[in-house]
Specification:
Length: 112
C-alpha cells in the first residue's frame, strides 16, 4: 500500500479543518492508499498555541512527508504550513497532486 501525505489547512478553523482532513484521509484510503495526516495526529499531544511545539509538529510532519510516495493537496487556501510541506516535497522530488471538490466529489486539478 502506497503512502500519500495529506496536505490541507489546520490552523484557524481547527474543528472544521480536522473534519475535512478526515474526509481527505478517507478519500485516499478509498483509492487504496495509506494516508499520512500529521495534523490529525500531532495535535493530540502537541500544543498548536506553543510556537516551539507547533514547529516541532511541522518538523515531524516534514520527516513523515519524505517517506511518502506522493503529496496530495486539498483545499482552496494555502496555509503557511501547507506551503512549507509543498516546498519540501518539491525539493525532495516527491510528486504533488492537487484536489478540489466538485459536485460532492474530489477531483484532481492541474495546480493551484
Amino acid at each position: 500500500m502506497e503512502r500519500v501525505f495529506i496536505c490541507s489547512p489546520f490552523r484557524g478553523a481547527e474543528e472544521k479543518n480536522v473534519e475535512l482532513a478526515r474526509k481527505y484521509a478517507r478519500f485516499a484510503y478509498e483509492k487504496g492508499c495509506l494516508p499520512v495526516v500529521p495534523h490529525l495526529y500531532f495535535p493530540q499531544f502537541l500544543k498548536e498555541s506553543d510556537v516551539q511545539e507547533r514547529m516541532a509538529g511541522i518538523q515531524f510532519g516534514l520527516s513523515l512527508l519524505k517517506e511518502c510516495r506522493e503529496v496530495w493537496v486539498f483545499g482552496e487556501v494555502m496555509s503557511e504550513g501547507m506551503c512549507m510541506e509543498i516546498a519540501e516535497a518539491d525539493h525532495a522530488g516527491i510528486p504533488i497532486r492537487y484536489f478540489t471538490k466538485q459536485n460532492g466529489e474530489f477531483v484532481e486539478r492541474s495546480s493551484l
